[in-house]
Amino acid sequence: MRDDLDRSISILQGERPAPLAGAGYPQDAADAGSTLSEADRTEAILHSARSQRGEVLAALARLDDNTYGRCVDCGAEIPEGRLEARPDAARCVNCQAKHARRR
Ligand SMILES: [Zn+2]
Prior knowledge:
There is one protein chain. By secondary structure, the protein is mainly α. The chain has helices at residues 2-15, 29-65, 80-85, 93-102. The protein is 65% helix and 0% strand. Bound molecules: zinc ion. Zinc ion (ZN) binds at residues 71, 73-74, 76, 91-92, 94-95.
């Protein structure tokens, strides 16, 4: 999972148009606009890939600590079905719902 994310992050970074890309680029306003929104979209995907990568890394750290599979808030065991759906889940369903409400 982490390797997949690393791969997509580096692909996305490679696709991101370099600022001030040299001569030869079409300069009319319509093209500039579509290049910009493409870059914005790539940036948004990169952002979510990076934050997901952070969650996966945290899950791997919990594996090292032998706390993987336990809720980081209440310490209850996270049901296996939930871990299969979300291998990087840090909280049990109850605490995740509370956590989401707090934000
Ligand atoms: Zn919990």
